[in-house]
C-alpha cells in the first residue's frame, strides 16, 4: 500500500457525531481520507452516505469490519457501543478511531487497552478537545510561570438545557460525566503536574429528563498539591469563566475568547516578609506591602496553531508516516479512571448489560 494513498475509512454511526462532525471535518481532506463504507441502523442515512460518497453500506458492524476495503473503523455510535464495537474491530485486525468516551467504565477501558496490546492494529481515541486553542494558550501561560506556581485551575462548561435524548439515559451511557467529562478531565490531566492522588465528586440530575446526571463537579488534586476543579452543568442558569487560574504571583480568567491577566510586575523584587507575633494595630492586619500589579486583556491566540480538526492530520501522520499520535490509549484509560472514581458511591451507576441468552 502506497504511503500517499488515502486512508480508507469505514464509518460506524451516521448521527450527531459521525454525520454532523466526522463527515464535515473530513471535507477538504480527500487526499488523506476516503470513506469507503458506512454502517447505521437507519436506511435513509445509509442512502445519503451512498449517494454522497459512493461507499458500501451496512446495517451490521460485523459486515463493515469484514469489508476488505475498510482499513480504519471510525466508531461514532452511542457511548454504550464504543467498547464492544472497538473490541470487534481490533480482534479482526482493523485499526480503530474511537469517539469519546473510550468506554463506559474504567474496567471496560482496561479491557480495550489489553485488546490493543494483543492486536497488530492500533486504537486511536478522538479526544479532539486536546486541540482547543484555549487549552493550548492556558498551558502556555501555566508553563511560562508568568503567574508563578499555578496552584488551582477551575474549568467550567455551564448552561441550562432540559435535554431529553439518549444522552439522558444511563443504560446508553448518557449523562454529562461521559459527555463533556472526557474532554474536561483530559484537559485537567494535561494541566496537572502529576497523576491525581485524590478525586472528589458530586453528581446531580436537575433539569434533564431520564435518569442520568446533568450536573457534575469533580475536584482532582495531584501529588504536588495542584487542584483542578471541573464543573459541567446543564442546569446552571448563569455562567462562569471557562478557565480561572490562580497562581502564587497572579491570576487569569478566560471567557468570551479573551484572557484577563493580573500579575505582579516581574521586574520588581518583592520585599521579604516575616510573621509578626506581636499585637497588631487596630486599623490593619500588619505592615503595608506595596505590590505593583500588571493588568491586561489579550485575545486567545496560542503560539502553537491549534484547531479541533487537526486531530485528523495527526491521525493521518500516525497511520501513514509512523508518527506518534498525541492521544495515547494510556491517557484515555487514565481519563476513565477519574470518571469511574467520580461515579463511585453515587446513585448514577451504569447498569450492567444483560447477557444474551
What does this structure look like?
With 357 residues, the protein is an alpha/beta fold. It folds into two domains: 137 residues, Rossmann fold; 152 residues, Dihydrodipicolinate Reductase, domain 2. Helix content is 30%, strand content 24%. The strands form two sheets. It has an eight-stranded mixed sheet with strand order 8-9-10-7-11-12-13-14, covered by helices on one side. A six-stranded parallel sheet has the order 3-2-1-4-5-6, with helices on both faces. Strand 9 and strand 10 form a beta hairpin. Helix 4 packs parallel to helix 5, helix 5 packs antiparallel against helix 10 and helix 8 crosses helix 10. The longest helix is centred in the C-terminal third of the chain and has 15 residues. The chain is elongated, with a radius of gyration of 23 Å. 37% of the residues are buried. The mean pLDDT is 95.
Question: What's the β-strand tally?
Answer: 14
CATH superfamily of the largest domain: Dihydrodipicolinate Reductase, domain 2
The top level CATH class name of the largest domain: Alpha Beta
Task: Report the mean per-residue pLDDT as an integer.
Answer: 95
Sheet of most strands: 8 strands, mixed
- Range of strand content: 15-25%
Along the chain, the helix and strand elements come as EHEHEHEHEHEHEHHEEEEEEEHH
CATH architecture of the largest domain: 2-Layer Sandwich
How many domain units? 2
Q: Overall 3D geometry?
A: elongated
How far is the N terminus from the C terminus? 42 Å
Radius of gyration: 23 Å
What is the overall number of helices?
A: 10
Q: In terms of per-residue confidence, which ranges show pLDDT below 50 for 5 or more consecutive residues?
A: none
How are the strands of the biggest sheet laid out side by side?
8-9-10-7-11-12-13-14
The helix fraction, in percent, is: 25-40%
Looking at CATH, which topology of the largest domain would you report? Answer: Dihydrodipicolinate Reductase, domain 2
Which structural category fits the helices and strands? alpha/beta
